[in-house]
Write a structure and sequence with these properties.
Elements (H helix, E strand, L loop, with lengths): L1 E3 L3 E3 L2 E8 L2 H10 L16 E3 L1 H9 L3 E2 L2 H18 L2
Parallel strand pairs: 1-5
Antiparallel strand pairs: 1-3, 2-3, 3-4
Length: 88
């Protein structure tokens, strides 16, 4: 599943995050939206793409699930715990 959180204002622009259950799923979905791989942000378990309002709307129309930013944080924290558990 691919997820987008709420738009938030950063400076004078609005952005949101897009992530997925699997990293390759995220890259495939981003490619389908015309998002370049160089926009990918990999900060440990927080891997995601930032989307502007137009691309966010397109992502939702193509099936991305809208979630609250707090849910996005929980999802990424769970990913961190799962990664740590798998490495033990």
């Amino acid at each position: 599943m691919v997820y987008v959180d709420q738009l938030r204002k950063y400076g004078s622009r609005y952005w949101c995050h897009m992530t997925a259950d699997a990293e390759e799923e995220l890259h495939r979905f981003a490619r389908a939206l015309g998002i370049e791989r160089r926009w990918y942000q990999n900060k440990g378990y927080k891997w995601h793409y930032d989307l502007d309002p137009v691309r966010r709307e397109l992502a939702v129309r193509r099936g991305a699930q809208q979630i609250h930013t707090r849910a996005m944080v929980r999802l990424m924290q769970a990913r961190c715990r799962d990664t740590a558990a798998a490495s033990r």
